[in-house]
Amino acid sequence: MKKKWSKNFSLAKLLQRLSVATALFILAAFVATCICANRAYAQDELSLQINGFVDTYHALQSSYPHKVMSSRTRLRLEMRADYGEASLYSSMNLAYNSLLKDQTGAFLREAYFDYAGNFLEVKAGRQIVTWGVADGLRITDLISPMDYTEFMANDYDDIRVPVNAIDLKIPGERVSAEFVFVPVPEYFVMPSGEDNPWTMQLPERTRMDLSGTPEKRLKNSEYGGRLRFFLENLDFSLTAMRTFNKSPVTVASYNPKTDSILIRGVYKPMNVIGGDMSIPMGEFVIRGEVAEYFGEPIALANSTDYLVRNTFNALLGIDWYAGNNWTFMVQYMHKIVSDYRNDLGIEENSSMVTARISKELLNNTLKFSLYGMIDIDNLGYYVRSAADYLLSDQITLSFGADGFGGKRGTFKTYKKNTQIWVKGRYFF
Amino acid sequence: MKKSFVATLLLSASFLFAAEQNARDIMVKVKNRPDGDTRSSSMEMKLVNKNGGTRVRKITSFAMDVGEDTKTIMFFQYPNDVKGTGFLTVNYDDVNKEDDKWLYLPALKKTRRISGKSSKTDYFMGSDFTYDDIGKRNVDEDSHKLVREESANGFDYYVIESTPKKEGEIFSKKLVWIRKDCDVVEKVEFYDKLGKLHRKMISSDIKKVDGFWTIGKMVMENVQTGHSTELLFLDPKFNVQLDSKIFTVNKLERGL
To answer: Do A230 and B249 touch (CB under 8 A)?
Structure first.
């Protein structure tokens, strides 16, 4: 009886905690709805838009045994209803994946309510939050994590994981302030399952468990704010947030009874202070981001445990708009671990370089692009080359190749996943 | 004899200067032709390749004059692969100041600060118009010369030759036909660096809307590739009530 009562009590507490987050959601949506109703009634009418696309993507391993790396087709539906300054937006995927059965079905991506008042804007619901100015790298862009089900072989907009959040913004001409609250943070999705060619191969009698994400309690919520400035020759923003290491740190433990190894994911809260800037200079734009992560967990080299350290993360990028539809982008990212110990699993200073070149031809109907990422410490690389051809206003055909390699690290592990691919997309 | 030669030379030089000054004044008049403090319109671009294949682009744009400078925000409506893309520009009248430009890419949900210099000479959305052709090019970026005055189709025209002062432009010179009665550019011929005719632009459907002279249609043809672009200005409005908050990155990201 006592046990049952205690269980009920915990449940009540949990519900109470959850209800705080839910109440916040409802309150924000209710306030915004009331405000917009007043305005909308006066002068506006309802409009509804439905758009989307159908795409199909197929990839083949370039080396023997030329396995099919991916084969998927999906319908993306995007719906938007506007009423005055308020709108409802949703996007969903209806997908068929012939390799990964758990990727077949209907998946809601975004669904949010949005209201734009003169002094306050509210966006509440499932949404993708993108901060910072980096291209494909994460320094301050930490809220929406990445879906690495197919590692980096997916389009960038598909890689971002939406979060259930309330985003409040105070808009301004030269300055704007933004606050984001995520009651239950989302974490990286890693490739898993034997049918997925991107799943990391584990030694025998080894199991990986990344399910240990923090409890869904208010104390484990994520929140942050940023101030953005848009000036004549300079854009910059200041960011502060409380978040988690969304990409798990993995720690292994040996169980002598079962003679097996369990690798589990560790997620820890961390505070982040940082900012970004963009400066146009003639044909160039200089971009930069910096952030100090307070309390980032880092695995030991032997993977038996982890330590918490402050890290300094910085990125410098140069975009060159060379004219004649040529674009060049280069980025350098650097990480410094404070209070460094030699038994840590990463170097005290680690760095990454990315480069992107693109050229458009035939009145922008044909685009060639090359994207490369170099893991300097592990001497690893990832290269994606692509050609996109606009067959008509509705149809785009693309083909390309992804190459992996190097001496150590993730990119080397994926060397066998070097692939060629083809994609077709029809917009409606 | 020597004196009269010097006098002739000075006179010619002063005529040349006056002609140049006169041509510049005409171009300033064209640029400053009244068009209200704010404007809005929908644009439809039809891109036609030499085989007759067509593509269509639809854009909604708003503009506001702030002193001598102009702020413009454009939202791409069609085709759907670029729908939601937004482009914000602050076009400075000061020739020594580069424009401020931001591009919002909905697929990445990100705004990029882009170079204010280079994109001016790039073609706009695969069309035959450059960003410069669509925006307001500063008069003093070119030297101007009144070549002749002529009459055709019942109208009188100034024909002005404009030569870029800086290197790196996509044209070596352009010939501009300006209608005297309304200061509207009716025809432009762009010549490439080898001096060959490269592109030809013709404006039509020139009429008064809300008391302002406006162009209803522009056709730009690249005579070297056979590609052409027809640009229709639909529903132009002048002196519309626009909030200055429309011309912000925040609005760019929110869309229409």
So the answer is: yes
* Residue B101 β-bridge partners: B89, B114
**φ and ψ at B140, to 5 degrees?**
-85, 10
The alpha-carbon gap from A173 to the nearest alpha carbon of chain B, in Å, equals: 6
Instruction: Please give the Cα distance from A390 to B130 (Å, whole number).
Output: 20
How far apart CA A120 and CA B232 sit, in angstroms, is: 36
Could you say which of 2.40.160.10, 2.70.70.10, 3.40.50.2300, 3.30.2350.10 is the CATH number of the domain covering A2-427?
2.40.160.10
Domains of chain B by range and CATH?
A: 2-254 (2.50.20.10)
Query: Do B168 and A323 meet the contact criterion of CB atoms below 8 Å apart?
Result: yes
Residue B86 has pLDDT above 60, yes or no: yes
ipTM: 0.85
In this prediction, the residues of chain A whose per-residue pLDDT falls under 50 are 1-43
Alpha-carbon distance values, B90 to A322, A324, B70, B194, B200 (Å): 21, 22, 6, 33, 27
DSSP, res A142: -
Secondary structure class of A15 (helix, strand, coil): helix
Q: With contact defined as beta carbons under 8 Å apart, do A318 and A284 qualify?
A: yes
> Helix (H, G, I), strand (E, B), or coil: what is residue A4?
helix
**In A171-283, beta strands by DSSP E:** 175-182, 206-209, 222-230, 235-244, 249-255, 260-266, 269-281
A200: which DSSP letter?
P
pTM > 0.90: yes or no: no
> Chain centroid to CA A364: how far?
28
Backbone phi, psi, residue A129, to 5°: -110, 120
Cβ distance A338 to A312 under 8 Å? yes
Q: Scanning the structure block, which residue is given the tokens 């404006």?
A: B203
Q: How long is chain A?
A: 428
Q: Does B114 touch chain A (CB under 8 A)?
A: yes
- Look at residue A137 in the predicted model and tell me its pLDDT: 93
What pLDDT is stored for residue B169 in this prediction?
86
* DSSP code at position A138: -
Give the mean model confidence (pLDDT) for residues B56-74. 95
Inter-chain CB pairs, A–B, below 8 Å: 119
- Is B107 in contact with A155 (Cβ distance < 8 A)? yes
State pLDDT tens for residues A310-367.
999 999 999 999 888 899 999 999 999 999 999 999 999 999 999 999 999 999 999 9
Query: What is the nearest CA distance from B114 to chain A, expressed in angstroms?
Result: 6
Structure tokens at A168: 């409040």
CA torsion through residues B16, B17, B18, B20, sign: positive
Which of B115, B127, B129 should one mutate to test binding to chain A, selecting the residue with the greatest count of A CBs within 10 A? B115
Cα–Cα distance between A215 and A227 in angstroms, integer? 30
Closest Cα to residue A162, out of A191, A195, A133, A123?
A123
Domain spans of chain A, in order of start = 2-427
Q: Which two tokens stand for residue A55?
A: 């795409």
